[in-house]
Specification:
alpha/beta; AAA_14; 16 helices; 2 domains; nucleotide-binding; ATP-binding; P-loop_NTPase; single chain; Rossmann fold; five-stranded parallel sheet
């Protein structure tokens, strides 16, 4: 069997080195840069993890690394079925047999895709970092290469690069209409074009394969993504005993983006439907869905762990394109989609997030704390033309600012209102400008 594996591995290495990086839409993914650490590229299925590996390879090639020093190797190959961790040394030995000048003398870069298919890969990866002059990128299905598992199994030897579906800017780039220059000084025609694209993005989302599809094909594609995540990354992986309760939870979460989600209330709803499932089980299901990157949970912003625990979390889907598929209200729900889009953009910018709820009932969508120390209170709203809406959103920010006086107050809207008297300490900006500023 080893002889068979050796021949396949050799051929895959030769083929990989001879392959030119494919032309792909550039992704704006933050990559950690700490020598001696592997980079674990993680994210939901079909978000573009493999494409990012090829992008990094192409960038290293452009910066002067010879092609033979850049090895992309996918373990998703039926000829490698049954490969064990003890067989992984064949990859290293075969590579250096083909390119002996790279051993110890030069720093090769290995991109190991779908490595989670080999049980025990973690020991191999750690040893590779310790014993060879190799920069290591790891990626694969989120079913077996989750962020918390990488942190545990690699014992501090890996850092994460999270791949989300296309951002708004990336979707524009994919379509060849990404604007250049100062986004606040664009011509009126360009601003109108961007506004139209933003409305389309809010409805269709950013999954790369879904771009440009008609409604029926897009819906079926995205439904398939959700079903695959549920089956492979949750039900099979965690031996879910109550798949019906899990699917009810998914429909509830994806169809009510940005809503507060209470396990206690959902447990009561399940009980009323005759579904007997424990609260602890439901908490586990929610954790599994977040681990699989299908949803993103936001806690109450509070320095008190007790307060965070007793308050429900706000739940958002990984992509705005999932909202109209699971929302049965029949409404456009642009506000929910815009809030979801802002959340993921804040994640891309590295912000630590929470939502603010005051004792008087006022609520602000996000308190964002950035790595450089500054913070923002962000309220998201589609339109402010109605005086009562503007008054409510402004008062919420002002009340929250009393608890967070150092935070910049920001009001994000789809369209700038014709007339609005804003307090001097609140900044209003259109969503399309804010999304394109980074």
């Amino acid at each position: 069997m080893e002889k068979q594996y050796r021949a396949v591995i050799r051929q895959k290495i030769v083929d990989s080195i001879a392959t030119s990086p494919p032309p792909l839409t550039h992704r704006d993914v933050w990559l950690p840069q700490v020598r001696g650490k592997a980079t674990a590229v993680i994210g939901m299925r079909r978000a573009g993890k493999t494409s990012l590996l090829w992008q990094i390879l192409r960038e290293r090639l452009a910066s002067g690394t010879p092609r033979e020093g850049l090895l992309y190797f996918s373990f998703e190959d039926e000829r490698l079925a049954g490969l064990q961790a003890s067989d992984l040394d064949l990859l290293v030995e075969t590579y250096y047999a083909l390119y002996p000048d790279w051993r110890d003398q030069r720093r090769a870069v290995f991109f190991l895709d779908e490595i989670q298919l080999v049980a025990g890969w973690e020991l191999f990866a750690r040893r590779l970092l310790d014993s060879e002059n190799i920069e290591l990128f790891l990626s694969g299905s989120s079913a077996r290469l989750l962020s918390r598992e990488v942190a545990t199994s690699m014992r501090g030897r890996a850092m994460e690069a999270v791949v989300l579906p296309f951002s708004f800017r990336e979707s524009l780039r994919h379509q060849g209409v990404e604007p250049t220059g100062n986004v606040t000084q664009l011509p009126k025609a360009v601003r109108s074009m961007l506004a139209k694209h933003l409305l389309t993005y809010l409805h269709e989302g950013g999954f790369p394969e879904a771009q440009g599809l008609d409604v029926r094909n897009r819906v079926e594609l995205l439904k398939g993504y959700v079903d695959l995540v549920l089956l492979r990354d949750v039900i099979e992986r965690h031996a879910v005993a109550q798949p019906l309760a899990l699917r009810w939870m998914v429909r509830q979460l994806l169809g009510n983006a940005g809503s507060l989600f209470s396990i206690n209330k959902f447990h009561a709803d399940m009980k009323s439907q005759g579904i007997n499932v424990g609260k602890d089980t439901l908490y586990s299901y929610l954790d599994h869905l977040e681990d699989a990157f299908l949803v993103r949970a936001v806690n109450l912003a509070s320095d008190s762990e007790a307060r965070r625990r007793v308050h429900p979390r706000k739940i958002y889907p990984i992509d705005t394109g999932l909202i109209p598929i699971f929302d049965r209200s029949g409404k456009a729900n642009l506000g929910h989609a815009l809030e979801t889009l802002v959340l993921h953009e804040l994640d891309r910018r590295g912000a630590e997030l929470g939502y603010v709820r005051m004792v008087d009932g006022f609520e602000v969508d996000f308190l964002a704390r950035y790595p450089d120390g500054h913070s923002e209170l962000i309220q998201v709203c589609t339109h402010l033309d109605a005086p009562e809406t503007a008054h409510r959103e402004i008062r919420a920010l002002q009340h929250a600012a009393s608890d967070y006086p150092d935070a910049q107050q920001l009001l994000l809207v789809l369209e700038r209102p014709a007339l609005l008297d804003l307090p001097h300490d609140i900044s209003l900006i259109t969503a399309q400008e804010w999304l394109l500023m980074a």
